[in-house]
What we know:
TIM Barrel; binds pyridoxal-5'-phosphate
Amino acid sequence: MRPSVRDLVASAAPDELPAYVYDVAALREHASAVRAALPPAVELYYAAKANPAPEILAALREAVTGYEVASGGELAHVREAVPGAPVAFGGPGKTTAEIAAALAAGTERFHVESVHELRLLAALADRAGRPADVLLRVNPAVDGGALDGVALAMGGRPTPFGLDPDAVTACLRLLRDPQLRSLTLRGVHAHLASGLNADAQLAVARRIVTYAAGLFVTHPVPHPEVNLGGGMAVDYADPEHRFDWTAFGAGLAEIAAERPELTLRIEPGRALTAYCGWYATEVLDVKHSHGEDFAVLRGGTHHLRTPVTRGHDQPFALLPVETWPHPWPRPAAGGGRITLVGQLCTPKDVFARRVPATGLRAGDRVAFAMAGAYAWNISHHEFLMHPRPRFHYVG
Length: 395
Ligand SMILES: *Cc1c(COP(=O)(O)O)cnc(C)c1O
């Protein structure tokens, strides 16, 4: 935690907590290091769904080529937050209104997820008199255990995402039809898994590139593009253990050297922004219940849902506060482990279970780390009608 973040958390009044504190300077540094680790020709898009806060999108602008959006809402939002930045529109279940708006907004790439969607896009592009550039989102079979043990697989198996190889063939056939002349095929997109380390990412990337290159042999595309997706691993159990961007960049350079005709693109979300966010709050109470200690924190997983959705302990830093304003004894943890919970009336409202926090007292501050991605924006804010957190962006 940088001093600027620590000072803000330490000096906030209790009713100014909980607060999300984003270390924008750290984000810029991290994103530019990621950019520097990649071969210059590899394009870096940011998947906005990880954290679409305008300040975050703007902070990434220098390091990224563009932004991947997965809804009409994200599309309009990104256009406004980072005007002029290239946008790729993906996601299953695009509506007619979303596609029409995306066409009107001049969206640079459409990631097409089904044969029906391709036809719908073509019809709407025709009607609007606006051509559209298309990547087919492919879901090839991935054999050989490349996806074994992966946290979440969006491809290489039955999913609602992307096109099976026979549907890819059907799309390619349709794209040669003069009736679909408003669409230009630019290449393929794949996003098959999340939580992959650099070696596993490269193994998957090689398979996608081999599959795509095979398609481009029978269906030539000028300057074909291959979007390899996101899903770079983030290790919440060990914040210091980061995705090896250097090894990944070196592997991508090898792939690029073997296939100089391809433009490669990646679109990470979590691995770019997870580290820059903190969810800071105070301990309201410390209780002993049937042999275990619980710290009840101001706020809860309705603000920071990440540990519940992933089933992990959110890493945190403790900031002791020496003053205690009441004449009665200060509730404090014993010497052992403690479970950190929020204010919600549900046993699921747990940030971290039986973690070491010796001597934690009511009034102390707790700042949860790695709260910069899939945190506030995936949380069920309205549940129980507690106040919203504050938001700070420190430079
Ligand atoms: C969510 C998503 C991403 C980003 O995934 P991360 O795990 O955050 O890197 C990229 N591409 C697509 C299509 C996605 O749905």
